[in-house]
Amino acid sequence: MSPGYSTKIYKSRKRPVLVYILIPIIVLAISGFIYLNKSQNEVIISDTVHENKSEPEEKISRPEKIESRKVEDELLIVPEENLPSEQNDSGEEKTTRVELLSIQNRALFYTKRKEYDKAINEYNILLNYNKRFLTIIGMCYYWMNENEEAVSFLKDADDLEYYPYRTKKFLALAYYRLNDLATSLEYAEDAIEYGQDGELKQLIAKLKREENVMKGYKDLGTENFLIQFSREEHDETRTIVSDYLKEAYRVIGKELDYFPNKQFVVILYNERDFFDVTRAPGWAGGLYDGKIRLPVGGLSGPNDILKNVIFHEFTHALISEITQKCPLWINEGLAEYFSSAEINLNIKKPIPLKYLEKRFPSGNVAYISLAYRTSHSAVNYMIDKYGMYSILELLENFGEGMDISKAFESVLYISYDDFVSEWGKQF
Predict the structure, then answer these.
(1) What are 181-205's pLDDT values in tens digits?
(2) β-bridge mates for residue 381, sequence order
(3) Whether residue 80 is found in the same domain as residue 180
(4) Cα 359 to Cα 355: distance, rounded to the nearest angstrom
(5) How far is CA 145 from CA 136, 141, 174, 290, 391, in A?
(6) pTM for the complete prediction?
(7) 8 A C-beta contact, residue 271 and residue 251
(8) I need a surface site. Which of 10, 30, 232, 284 has the fewest CB within 10 A?
């Protein structure tokens, strides 16, 4: 921040006595208003939870206004008629309204911290009193990358016509991850009828591009991979790709001691179709966005560059199975660690790791390269000093909602700042 913008200078002046009389009255009025609003017990459940905002009541027949209400603005409330009374004629223990509100607040807390597994436990209790919680449970499973579970809950919510926009949107997103493009497109087009949504527009456009490109594609299924390819362009390449994928699963899985029991989707494109579908930058050699996407073709034998790209993208896929919240420099650093034969430590001035936690630079290829080498260097240092066994534990802590500072202290017994300082001494 530039000097002079952090503070402002005001010329003091005497306030009339009337101001000192009015201020307490205004404060009391506001306090009373807040107290009355609290009695409504409205709670916002979301990916990132924000303060409640009152909204005008809408008619039942009126569709939701997507452009003014994001996912985090949805109110999920246990209605009075679905809550138990304090009386219990049977003599059995019964959850009271106060207890349910406490459960709802815990669910809110865990959702805010992105500890979705814990949030789901609380929502499942609330589900006994309000089936509308089917939607938020499905959303939590989606955020945890457990897409089949997400579909199960969201379809039940869709059958009951609860929160139609959000339910259909997350069904579209979950089916896309499950590689059911036709069903994903169907739900996406249904959801967007409720209003404009940029994410849905992008998904629909991408689905249509993929469907157009993949007409006539064939599938090659193995135990852990579903490879989709064009018979005309990838008839020989598919076997080479399959062998490299099996090797990556075995080698990286052994290093991390993690072998997920699932099929990863891998799509082979020619170069033109790859960039048309993914909209990736020109320097990209592959992409993982829930599916491993590779621009390959014309290979008749082993290729080291292709092998490195596959190891890189499969590392991203593996990390995604453990956590959706891995700091970007660790994610890319691990991918480089497993895909590069040797590390280039010729870095005069690395990019600060805190800058690379959530984003990578774009545009300048030299600066992008420096970001990858910085990340690779930091991860290489971490593994050399603390061991590969600590990496899985670190990723699992991220998956449980722990921030990077607490995760480092818990697993590496060093503060994040001290780690950055120690690693930086070599430059």
Answers:
(1) 999 999 999 999 988 889 999 999 9
(2) none
(3) yes
(4) 7
(5) 14, 6, 8, 9, 20
(6) 0.72
(7) no
(8) 10
